[in-house]
Amino acid sequence: MKKALITGIAGQDGSYLCDLLLSKGYAVHGVDLNVVIQNPDRYLGRLQPVLDRLVLHSTSMDDPHDVLALIEAVRPDECYHMAAQSFVIRSFVDEFSTLNTNISGTHHLLAALHEKAPQCRFFFAASSEIFGDAKKTPQNENTPICPRNPYGISKLTGYFLTRYYREDKKMHASSGILYNHESPRRGFDFVTRKITKTVAEIKYGRAKELLLGNLEARRDWGFAADYVQAMWRMLQQDNPDDYVIATGETHSVREFVEKAFARADLDWKRHVVVDQQLYRPTEPCELCGDSTKARTTLSWQPTVDFDDLVAMMVDEDLRLQRCQP
Prior knowledge:
Layout: E1 3-7, H1 12-23, E2 27-31, H2 34-37, H3 40-43, E3 54-57, H4 64-74, E4 78-81, H5 88-93, H6 95-116, E5 121-127, H7 150-167, E6 173-178, E7 181-182, H8 191-203, E8 210-212, E9 218-219, E10 222-223, H9 224-235, E11 242-245, E12 251-252, H10 253-263, E13 272-274, H11 292-297, H12 306-323
Parallel strand pairs: 1-2, 1-4, 2-3, 4-5, 5-6, 6-11, 7-10, 8-13
Antiparallel strand pairs: 9-12
């Protein structure tokens, strides 16, 4: 039985990856400090259906000795590193924490694996934000890199650390350059889930307006469960490499809003308020991914389109609101 270690297991991607690996017969170990030191009930919600089949560790990714002890104890065959401060807007406010957490955690994990489990195959969750001010659209693995925010800088450093351990340390280490991917398990801080949750609250009379920033911002939005399939496929390859994972089409925040409100039979213009304070200090170019390499080499492709993704998220938040007393 293969043994997998997932950092950030309690998050959206970690929970979907956990489901996938368990379905394939893996023994799954997970790391998420929040699930132990804060409020377990709050942070374990996504994992409740499979909690009895997991081994959870309260390792601090900021502590190299803690990470080394974890790897020595688990000795994983595959490691998926998704633990990070992943909210872009927050990185502008607290860039020191974002850079320290995202860069140090990745470095500590790679170094520990190299020392204690060098045979382990490693996946790093990079981001389309590494392209930032890209001069062409769509972007692929050869597009020049130019991040425009602290989060993108931290992910770029992790991307290069992964390449360093692959090329110089000869580890099986791959990066997925992940474009925006959403689901009903998305955190409420992210604009897509903020939209669908507020739509449901308005539908049931628990809210009246939705505050948003730039409605014309465009993103390449996919379904998170599709993206973890790509992660797993990367580690099944004989040779490690880097892959863009994206749908190849973009939609504006305005389009997302229109479809979300329409799904609930509401008029978005009566409820949406644009707040200039919610604009990003720097808006990246149109980030649209060319995933030809992943589609060819990994035989991967997205299965959920934009309309179905929005409908799926709204329907789940409507269900949750119906369950509220």
